[in-house]
Write a structure and sequence with these properties.
single chain, 26 helices, 24 strands
């Protein structure tokens, strides 16, 4: 196993790796550090799932499973880049691309009937959504802006949209009968098995059997009423029309891969309800599934002039919709994975509550977040800025995050314990001794879900928060609502640990709405705060606050201290940036910023030094941090515009600053001597390298694929400077 694993992923981060990874591998080799790769990309995971459909030379190992085992050991040192959390449309596109390249993987069966189709569907369902992170995150999360990044953002504040008190932008959520209001929770006193059953007038159906929970596990169950959801959506569509603002739906259909696509489908149907009422049977015959989105729906009915005319008439009568791409007519409801709440809501808030409409202009918006569990965070943020005006990044403090996520903690709506109820009845979770732990009366179409959080991750999370607060000495808040059943169970763990360690006075426990306002008041005053949160809020807040403070969440330092002693270093948030890939393919300009990779690399090397006693790795890591500082100090991050420096330029500068720092240091004479001529060569060739990188921009770039690119073509695109390549060389 290599000393450091650098994950192979998708889209913009993976393209950037084609340029950056050879630099990392060459520099690391000088310190005796090997850097290898493991493929956790969407295409790679599809190929690994179907070896029997492939020729011997096409088969691929299950790298995700291998990494899943590695992160449970003290030897783990993994740099994890953002990967695609695939929606069904993305999964289908990736399958088609692979099939077009000669890989005989099966189609994705929408309605599996045969045993083979059911088996294929089960494998694909294990791949879609946020399938990677729960496997790798065998520890809790420590996310914060690196000091250098925060200092740069304060010295070079990004543009913020203006907020006004009369803004019509607001957040709409269900007033009841949602996941939040129907939740029940319990902590298990002993280890147990469990099953989930649906009891109806026609008998009992086992929804899930063979569940195993260790003692101390917090087990939740809840459901969303589909009737209440439909009423809510219809009312909000009408209210949005009356307000004259944009209708925008904000979901997490990647992480909550079972529940949220269903909710999304109800929104699509509600928006086109008159069309479904009139043409429902005909549309079903054409294979229309609202869960697949408006884009798929339009593609299936485009040959039917009557349906298309009624869709046009319906859309004209509806409120204008929040757009993903106004120029291309891609709406909020086209694809469930196009509008992800943790990115879309902060972007709208940063813009002063404005979203792009179909006319290509910015407008106020109704931000529809059906479930009320965490909608108050965004609602309170909007209220705060209406009252106080926009945040000033030049003077704002920062919100760090300690997130509970180890061992699949709080994986709401994505586990195989989430169900769309087929028939009215009662759902029960029954323990092996016959005890009914949870039960809910449900109707057909309701969405029932359960999740669990184990004791060891909870205790590790609290101790990590205590350690972080001690290091920072600033405000620290557990974002937990004592009135919410799940949070009350967590509080029962949190308080005794804080009291036993004598630090209860260092922390506050506040419901998310109140914690939001308190944190905004803190950073507006130039002070810092630590948000100690569960898994979903970790995901949301580590986009919300960085986007407000730094303009992006991709530059966050993200450290996962694995519970068995290893380290997982995530390269910030920010997703896999499909729009960046589109720009590269059209203009050969990649605006992806690798600063997150730079930060993770320094941490990984220093962690390796601590774990293995390799002091050369420490020197390399400290120098990488200085190189990262150089990127910021000299403004060497990528530009958004073609013809200006892009991601590849930033890698040249990172290599140069890294080599210069290594040549200048006096901790290791051997490394200084090794890198001195490299630093000199990179500096002397600056004009030629920059020119070679600039020359290729402006034309289309051929990657040989999108989800499964051609390695040789990708290297040709991402390493176009022969001069730089000659200095760096190729990986061994």
């Amino acid at each position: 196993m290599p000393d450091i694993i650098y994950t192979k992923v998708d889209e913009a981060p993976e393209l950037a790796s084609a340029s950056l990874l050879p630099i990392i591998q060459k520099f690391a080799a000088a310190a005796g550090v090997s850097v290898g790769t493991k493929d956790i990309s969407l295409a790679g995971r599809i190929l690994a799932a179907f070896p029997d459909h492939l020729s011997e030379d096409q088969r691929q190992s299950d790298d995700l499973a291998e990494l899943g085992n590695l992160v449970k050991t003290a030897e783990a040192n993994v740099i994890k880049l953002p990967n695609i959390s695939a929606s069904v449309p993305q999964l289908v596109e990736a399958i088609r691309e692979l099939q077009g390249q000669g890989f005989a993987v099966p189609d994705y069966p929408e309605n599996p009937k045969t045993d083979d189709e059911k088996a294929a569907r089960a494998k694909y369902d294990a791949i879609k959504g946020s399938a990677v992170n729960p496997v790798l995150r065998e520890g809790n999360s420590d996310r914060r802006a690196a000091k250098a990044v925060k200092s740069f953002a304060q010295a070079n504040p990004h543009r913020m949209g203006d907020w006004t008190a009369d803004s019509k932008t607001d957040v709409s959520s269900m007033s009841g009968n949602d996941f939040f209001s129907n939740e029940s929770s319990a902590t298990l006193k002993s280890a147990t098995a469990a099953k989930i059953v649906l009891e109806t007038a026609s008998g009992e159906t086992v929804l899930k059997d063979g569940l195993e929970y260790p003692a101390g596990t917090v087990v939740d169950a809840t459901f969303m009423s589909v009737a209440a959801l439909k009423d809510f959506l219809a009312a909000e569509i009408d209210r949005t029309k009356d307000q004259g603002i944009l209708f925008s739906l904000h979901m997490k259909a990647t992480m909550m891969k079972v529940s949220d696509p269903i909710i999304f489908g109800h929104a699509v149907k509600a928006f086109l309800q008159p069309v479904f009422d009139k043409h429902g049977d005909a549309m079903a015959a054409l294979g229309v599934n609202p869960n697949s989105g408006l884009g798929d729906l339009l593609a299936r009915v485009k040959g039917n002039a009557e349906i298309m005319a009624d869709i046009d008439a319906c859309m004209a009568a509806r409120p204008p919709m929040y757009m993903v791409d106004s120029d291309k007519g891609i709406t909020n409801l086209h694809v469930s994975s196009d509008v992800i709440i943790d990115a879309s809501m902060p972007a709208l808030i940063r813009a002063g509550g404005k979203g792009w409409g179909p006319d290509g202009n910015e407008h106020d918006a109704n931000c529809v977040i059906p479930d009320n569990s965490y909608a108050p965070v965004y609602d309170e943020t909007i209220r705060f800025f209406k009252e106080n005006g926009k945040l000033n990044p030049a003077t704002a403090g920062t919100v760090q995050n300690i997130g509970l996520m180890a061992q699949k903690a709080e994986e709401y709506g994505s586990h195989p314990t989430t169900f769309e109820i087929p028939e009215a009845g009662t759902v029960k979770m029954i323990l092996d001794d016959g005890t009914v732990l949870h039960q809910h009366t449900v109707e057909a179409g309701d969405i029932w879900r359960s999740s669990s959080t184990r004791q060891a991750p909870i205790e590790d999370w609290v101790n990590l928060a205590i350690s972080r607060q001690k290091a920072e000495g600033c405000e620290a808040i557990f974002w937990l609502d004592a009135a919410r059943p799940h949070d009350a169970e967590l509080i029962a763990y949190v308080k005794p640990i804080l009291e036993a360690q004598g630090v209860a006075d260092k922390f506050r426990i506040m419901a998310p709405r109140e914690a939001t306002r308190a944190s905004l008041e803190t950073i507006t005053g130039g002070r810092n705060s630590i948000a100690v949160t569960g898994n979903v809020l970790r995901d949301y807040l580590t986009d919300l606050f960085p986007i407000l403070e730094l303009a992006t969440s991709a530059k966050m330092l993200s450290i996962v201290k694995l519970m068995n002693g290893g380290g997982l270093f995530e390269t910030g948030a920010g997703g896999s940036a499909p729009k960046h890939v589109q720009q590269l393919m059209e203009e050969n300009h990649l605006r992806w910023d690798s600063l997150g990779e730079f930060c993770a690399l320094g941490e990984s090397l220093i962690f390796l030094a601590d774990a293995r006693g390799n002091e050369k790795a420490r020197v390399l890591g400290i120098a990488a941090e200085k190189a990262t500082q150089g990127i910021l100090d000299h403004d060497r991050s990528p530009s958004r515009k073609v013809g200006e420096p892009d991601n590849r330029d930033s890698h040249y500068w990172f290599a140069r600053y890294w080599a210069e720092a290594l040549a200048a240091q006096d901790q290791d004479a051997e490394l200084a001597a090794h890198f001195a001529p490299i630093a000199e060569a990179l500096a002397a060739a600056e004009a030629k390298i920059v020119s070679e990188l600039a020359t290729v921009q402006g034309a289309e770039a051929d990657l040989g694929g999108y989800y499964h690119t051609d390695p040789a073509k990708t290297v040709a695109v991402m390493r176009p400077s022969e001069t730089l390549n000659a200095i760096i060389g190729n990986p061994d």
